[in-house]
Write the structure tokens for this entry.
Amino acid sequence: MPLKYNINTHLDDPQTTIRHREIILSKKFLWKIYVEWYGNFITEVKKNPEGKYLEIGSGGGFLKEMLPNVITSDILPLPHVAMQFSAEKLPFISNELDGIFMVNVLHHIPHPASFFSEAERTLKPGGKIIMIEPANTLLSRFIYKNFHHEPFMPGGEWDIESTGPLSGANGALPYILMIRDRKKFEKEFPGLRIDSINMLTAFLYTVSGGVSRKCLVPEWSYGLWRLIEKIPFVNAICGMMATYIVSKR
């Protein structure tokens, strides 16, 4: 069933995140999208299977089922997550982590500069931050500004109002940090390098209904939508999400 909530209250309730996870696992169309997203993380782990990898904001997902050695974490107390802490203060020593993985997390962090400082400290040289986050494209701006419960403000500042762990957000924050203000980012974090930004999921996530609406299309059509997204420039113009990869020098 669709999940309905008041974004000023229930989004910050751990039960909402638990319900999100149940929906993702039960909606096969949406589940397939997450499997594709997790493929980015799996590719990185295959390069160094014995490395130490951290997932931040694990609550709604199921990466642990695909990567048993990943350390799961969340800011909320959740029964299926190993550690609870804020992304602005990572409980790891310097040069300890080989990779940090995140899905829809960065744009909720009130002070993202604190997170990137911590990532710069805790990652080993060559370690990577791989994030799946909202994109800023022609289609995504229209959808996010008119049909999404979270604010999407490409002209916003780096910091966002901390109304709660999940209710505070600016979906355009990844764009602001790593595209609009790229020179500032590189100056603030000289130990980090933006490796790539790839737009993706032009239509798949929208037609899936996400965690709050029914799927708009039959499950068998997944492959068809996937083929449409492979047409040149479709994701560049219409991508709803993007893979942001940042490495430690």
In short: DSSP finds ten helices and seven strands in the chain.
